[in-house]
C-alpha cells in the first residue's frame, strides 16, 4: 500500500493541471515519458535491493558499485532534498488547517502537523507503517472514485456535463500546440510527483520478508504510474479543454463541480490534507533512515547511527525535526518567497538521484555476469538499453531546464548543491572512517 500511494500528492492533484495548461493534450506525453523512466529506474533499484537489503538503499548501492564518493554524495543530496519536501508539506498542511480553522495561524498548524507525523515515526516502525497504510488507502480510494466519475462523464452518464472526449486531443491548436519544450518541462513536474518511489524499497527493507516485499513494491510502480497518473490525467485531458486555465488550476475538484457535485471543493481539501500528510510521513521515514545509513558508513556523525530498542533512529529523527523547524522559521520570517523557489528544485534533485541509480545498476551488471542468468529472481527490464534510454532522457530533461529561463534557477541551484556536497567528501575523506552499531 505504501508503494502504491505513499508519494501521491499535490504533484498529481494540482500539478497535473499546470502541465495540461502549458503543454496542451501532449501533457499525456509528459506523463508517459516520466512514468516510463521511473518504471525503468525503480526496476533497476529493485534488482540491486534484493541483493543487499539496507536502510540506505541507493546510497549504499552507489558506494558499492561506483565508489565511496558516490554513496556519500547521493545520500546527502537525497537527505537535503527530503528536508525541503518535508517542510513544504508541513506548510501546505498548515495552510489547509488555516482554511478550516481561520483562527489558527499557518505556522502553528505546520508545526503541529510536524509534531504529529514525527510522533508516528518515533514510536515504532510498525506505527509508521500502519499510519502510512491508511493514508495511502484514503488517497487511492479518492483517485479511483474520481476515475469512475470521469469514465461516467465520458460515457455521457452524467446529465449535467457533456465532455468533449477525443475531440479535445486536436481542438484548440492541435495535440502539441506549444511545441516540445513544455512537454519536457512537464516531465520535470511528473518526476517530482513520482519522486519518492524509492521509499518503497527502504520501507520494504524493514518488513518481515524484505526481499519478497521489495519485489512486490517495485512491481507495483507500473500499476501506480499507468492507472493513477496516466489514467487520471487522460481523463482530465478528454474532459477539460487545455485552454480552460481557470478549471485547470484545480482540475480534479473542477470536474466534480462541473458534474454537479458542489461539495467537491471541501472533499478535495480533505484528500489533499491526507495526501500532504502521507508524503510528509513517507519522506520523514526515508530521510531518517538515510541519515542512519550515512552514519553507519562513516559519512555522518556517529550519534545518528544509533537506534532505540524498537529499531527507530531517534537521533536522526531529532535532526530532521530540528532542521525542519529551522526552515519553517526562515520561511515565515522571510515571507516564504525564497523557500518556495527552492522547493521547486526538488524535481531536479531527484533526477540526479535517479541518474546515480542507473549508473550503479549498470556497474553492478558489468561486475556480476551471474546477474544476467536465471539465478536472480528479479531483473531490471531492457538492460543495457533501458539504462541508456533512462540516462539520456533524464540528461535531456535536465539540460532543458538550463535553457529555459523559467527553470534555469532550478538547474543552477541543483548543480551548486551537488558540487558542494561532492567537494565536501573530498575535503573530509582524509579523516578516519568510524562506524557504529545499532543500540
Summarize the structure.
This protein has about 450 residues and is mostly helical.
The level of helicity is: over 70%
Mean pLDDT comes to 80
Residue runs with pLDDT of under 50 for 5 or more positions = 433-439
Structural class: mainly alpha
Distance from first to last alpha carbon: 30 Å
Beta-strand level of the residues, as a percent range?
under 5%
Largest sheet: none
So what's the overall shape? Answer: globular
Give the arrangement of secondary structure elements.
Elements: H1 2-5, H2 10-13, H3 15-23, H4 27-49, H5 58-65, H6 68-100, H7 106-123, H8 125-154, H9 181-194, H10 199-204, H11 210-239, H12 245-248, H13 251-258, H14 264-296, H15 314-334, H16 337-343, H17 346-367, H18 385-403, H19 408-428
Helix pairs in contact: 3-9, 4-9, 4-11, 4-17, 4-18, 5-6, 5-17, 6-7, 6-14, 6-15, 6-17, 6-19, 7-8, 7-14, 7-15, 8-11, 8-14, 9-17, 9-18, 13-14, 14-15, 15-16, 17-18, 18-19
Commentary on this structure:
The protein is mostly helical and 439 residues long. Helices cover 72% and strands 0% of the residues. The chain has 19 helices and no strands. Helix 5 packs across helix 17, helix 8 packs antiparallel against helix 14 (264-296) and helix 13 packs antiparallel against helix 14 (264-296). The chain is globular and about 65 Å long. The relative contact order is 0.19. Mean pLDDT is 80; it is low at 433-439.
Amino acid at each position: 500500500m505504501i508503494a502504491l500511494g505513499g508519494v501521491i500528492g499535490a504533484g498529481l492533484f494540482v500539478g497535473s493541471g499546470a502541465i495540461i495548461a502549458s503543454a496542451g493534450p501532449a501533457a499525456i506525453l509528459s506523463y508517459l515519458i516520466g512514468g516510463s523512466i521511473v518504471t525503468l529506474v525503480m526496476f533497476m533499484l529493485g534488482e540491486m535491493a534484493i541483493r543487499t537489503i539496507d536502510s540506505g538503499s541507493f546510497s549504499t548501492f552507489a558506494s558499492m558499485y561506483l565508489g565511496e564518493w558516490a554513496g556519500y554524495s547521493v545520500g546527502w543530496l537525497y537527505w537535503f532534498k527530503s528536508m525541503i519536501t518535508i517542510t513544504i508539506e508541513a506548510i501546505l498542511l498548515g495552510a489547509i488547517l488555516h482554511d478550516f480553522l481561520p483562527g489558527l495561524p499557518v505556522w502553528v498548524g505546520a508545526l503541529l502537523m510536524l509534531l504529529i507525523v514525527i510522533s508516528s515515526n518515533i514510536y515504532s516502525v510498525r506505527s509508521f507503517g500502519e499510519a502510512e497504510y491508511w493514508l495511502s488507502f484514503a488517497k487511492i480510494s479518492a483517485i479511483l472514485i474520481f476515475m469512475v466519475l470521469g469514465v461516467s462523464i465520458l460515457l455521457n452518464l452524467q446529465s449535467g456535463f457533456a465532455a468533449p472526449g477525443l475531440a479535445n486531443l486536436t481542438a484548440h491548436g492541435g495535440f502539441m500546440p506549444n511545441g516540445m519544450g513544455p512537454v519536457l518541462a512537464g516531465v520535470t513536474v511528473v518526476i517530482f510527483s513520482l519522486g519518492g518511489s524509492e521509499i518503497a524499497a527502504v520501507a520494504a527493507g524493514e518488513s518481515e520478508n524484505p526481499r519478497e516485499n521489495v519485489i512486490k513494491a517495485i512491481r507495483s510502480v507500473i500499476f501506480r504510474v499507468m492507472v493513477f497518473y496516466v489514467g487520471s490525467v487522460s481523463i482530465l485531458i478528454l474532459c477539460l479543454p487545455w485552454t480552460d486555465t481557470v478549471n485547470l488550476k484545480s482540475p480534479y475538484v473542477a470536474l466534480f463541480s462541473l458534474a454537479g457535485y458542489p461539495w467537491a471543493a471541501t472533499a478535495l481539501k480533505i484528500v489533499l490534507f491526507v495526501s500532504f500528510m502521507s508524503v510528509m510521513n513517507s519522506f520523514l521515514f526515508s530521510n531518517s533512515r538515510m541519515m542512519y545509513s550515512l552514519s553507519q558508513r562513516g559519512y555522518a556523525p556517529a550519534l545518528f547511527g544509533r537506534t532505540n530498542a524498537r529499531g527507530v533512529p531517534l537521533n536522526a529523527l531529532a535532526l530532521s525535526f530540528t532542521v525542519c523547524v529551522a526552515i519553517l522559521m526562515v520561511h515565515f520570517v522571510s515571507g516564504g518567497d525564497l523557500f518556495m523557489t527552492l522547493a521547486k528544485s526538488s524535481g531536479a534533485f531527484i533526477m540526479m538521484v535517479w541518474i546515480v541509480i542507473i549508473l550503479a545498476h549498470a556497474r553492478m551488471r558489468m561486475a556480476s555476469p551471474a546477474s544476467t542468468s536465471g539465478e536472480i529472481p528479479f531483473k531490471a527490464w531492457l538492460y543495457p538499453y533501458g539504462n541508456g534510454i533512462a540516462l539520456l532522457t533524464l540528461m535531456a530533461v535536465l539540460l532543458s531546464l538550463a535553457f529555459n529561463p523559467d527553470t534555469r534557477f532550478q538547474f543552477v541551484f541543483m548543480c551548486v548543491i551537488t558540487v558542494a556536497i561532492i567537494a565536501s567528501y573530498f575535503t573530509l575523506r582524509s579523516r578516519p572512517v568510524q562506524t557504529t552499531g545499532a543500540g
